[in-house]
């Protein structure tokens, strides 16, 4: 099982990095022929940067659109960030000071992550107009993330495993020196789910994570009077 999971994580890492890199390249080369910032919009590049920061950190547009959906969405994403920071201890030796300080917060953020996901999934089931447009993949993504959160909490609070051996395994993977994993069914399930998420991430709607930075409604300044918006391909045609 150790060798299987090692190979699986190498494969998942390659698919994740290559897939996300290609999608970012694809987003970057997609032309934006029109100036279509959602108004009221900033008129300067500095204002656009500030708007993007508010969008990424506080989910500003979702906050204005629907408060309770914003609550569950923001809760999940911020909790996920703390959980990922907590997991950095498995990939660093010695553990960075700021990662060590945030360990207790990352631990209980797992509960917040599960609560946020449960709320978002309930929305897709209980709200009729959202249920109508939800596809099986929407439900499966939420179920997968929820299972990852619950299996991680289960390992911590109910099915304890040797976390030192787990850390040695992942440090070994980084150095191409495969070390044995503890024989633990809960750990195997958790790691399999994480690897599955890494593999499907580049092909799923979860790509809104990098995609938000390429949204023309958010990353464009509202300055059509001062600057003529011209897509590169249109500029080439005009030049010829």
Quick gist of this model?
The chain is mainly alpha-helical. The chain is built from 13 helices and no strands.
Can you offer a commentary on this structure?
- The protein is mainly alpha-helical.
- The chain has one domain (2-9, 39-239): Fumarate Reductase Cytochrome B subunit (Up-down Bundle).
- It has 13 helices and no strands.
- The protein has helices spanning 2-29, 45-58, 60-65, 67-87, 97-101, 103-126, 128-133, 136-157, 163-174, 185-200, 208-211, 216-219, 232-239.
- Helix 8 (136-157) packs antiparallel against helix 10 (185-200).
- The chain is globular and about 65 Å long.
The biggest beta sheet is recorded as: none
Q: What is the SS-derived class?
A: mainly alpha
- Rg from Cα: 21 Å
What is the 3D shape?
A: globular
On the 0 to 100 scale, the average pLDDT is 92
Number of domains: 1
CATH topology, by name, is Fumarate Reductase Cytochrome B subunit
By DSSP, the count of extended strands is 0
Query: How far apart are the termini?
Result: 61 Å
Order of helices and strands: HHHHHHHHHHHHH
Strand content: under 5%
Helix content: over 70%
Unreliable spans: none
Question: Which tags fit this structure?
Answer:
single chain, 240 residues, mainly alpha, Fumarate Reductase Cytochrome B subunit, 13 helices, 0% strand
Please write out the topology.
Layout: H1 2-29, H2 45-58, H3 60-65, H4 67-87, H5 97-101, H6 103-126, H7 128-133, H8 136-157, H9 163-174, H10 185-200, H11 208-211, H12 216-219, H13 232-239
Helix pairs in contact: 1-10, 4-6, 6-8, 8-10
